[in-house]
TrEMBL record:
Species this protein is from: Albimonas donghaensis
Gene3D superfamilies linked: Medium-chain alcohol dehydrogenases, catalytic domain, NAD(P)-binding Rossmann-like Domain
Record protein name field: NADPH2:quinone reductase
Pfam family of the protein (one): ADH_zinc_N
GO CC annotations, alphabetized: cytosol
Keywords: NADP, Oxidoreductase
Length: 324
């Protein structure tokens, strides 16, 4: 038997409990993974709260790191002792699990477990946002909400390394300082800031071609008002709540704008493409072009506190749950 964090009904952090579960030997086409760390993300909160419906009891966590313990019949290319990571698959809040090896990403030696749990989901997300959802190029100016958050810090650093000018938003001066360290050329500070006004001033009235918004309800209108004609709102999260219903005509009236809601699974469905994204991320980290903050590390027993801190905005960068 191994320990797993589960919830049996939707609710607040108090519904998370540590249960004993059985993880058998791997069957055909399976790998048994001893998990050492898990990323803690807003998607976990969306599942726990019921915003994203889920079968129960459920083991949350969509970003895991660990070591292959055993491989089942028919599995090739993987051996006991291999260090791996995965993302976009529920079940990382557990000491062990069975997994289809098609989900596994091989970790380079220079990336430790906590760092891997800090960057895999968030870094791959940053990659597809910048390279596929709305490709950017040197000389572009973009707006990144929550620039001191888990995805935001990586997104800002990656875009800056590409020669992109980044305007970030942050809820406090302390977080604004982190966003500047990540390369933001300008940071708009405060939850109630006049974001479109500051964007207009900073860009001499040009506004921005794209807004990457993981905040949702609280920033939606200000995001639209920050876009140039034919601009693109990339809404990839809803930390403040879901965006209310909108009418399609609204986007035409505001200057032929477009809106997309990308989901990670659709951009890594092809394992080969996922591995390309992961390799690019690991190369950026190894080269020091993306620096990883790993100060928010919680032991297994403090998962409730981790969720509370993330929801309350008391953290910056990534949150990691460790199993040892």
């Amino acid at each position: 038997m191994v320990r797993a964090i589960r919830f049996h009904r939707p609710g607040g952090p108090e519904v998370l409990q540590i249960d004993e579960i059985d993880v058998p030997a791997p069957g055909k086409g399976e790998v048994r993974l001893r998990q050492t760390a898990s990323g803690v993300n807003f998607t976990d909160i969306y599942s726990r709260s019921g915003l994203y419906p889920a079968p129960m009891p459920m083991i949350p966590g969509r970003e895991g790191v660990g070591v292959v313990e055993a491989v089942g019949p028919g599995v090739s290319g993987w051996s006991p002792g291999d260090r791996v990571a995965y993302c976009a698959l529920h079940g990382s809040y557990a000491e062990a699990r069975l997994i289809d090896p098609k989900h596994l990403i091989r970790l380079p030696d220079e990336i430790d477990d906590v760092t891997a749990a800090s960057i895999v989901l968030r870094g791959i997300t940053a990659h597809f946002l910048l390279h596929d959802v709305h490709p950017v190029k040197a000389g572009d100016t973009i707006l990144v909400h929550a620039a001191a958050g888990g995805v935001g810090l990586i997104l800002a650093q990656w875009a800056t390394a590409m020669g992109v000018r980044v305007i970030g938003t942050a809820s406090s001066e302390a977080k604004a300082a982190l966003a500047r360290e990540a390369g933001c050329a300008h940071v708009i500070t405060g939850r109630d800031a006049d974001i479109p006004g500051e964007v207009k001033a900073f860009t001499d009235g040009a506004m921005v071609g794209v807004v990457y918004d993981a905040v949702g309800r609280d920033t939606y209108v200000r995001s639209l008002d920050s876009l140039a004609r034919r601009g693109h709102l990339v809404s990839f999260g809803q930390a403040s709540g879901a965006i209310p219903p909108v009418t399609i005509q609204e986007f035409g009236n505001r200057g032929s704008l477009s809106l997309t809601r990308p989901m990670l699974g659709d951009y890594i469905a092809d394992p080969a493409q996922r591995d390309v994204r992961a390799a690019a991320l690991f190369d950026m980290v190894a080269a020091g072009r993306i620096k990883v903050r790993t100060e928010h590390v919680y032991p297994f027993e403090r998962i409730g506190q981790a969720h509370e801190d993330l929801e309350a905005g008391r953290t910056s960068g990534s949150l990691v749950l460790t199993m040892t």
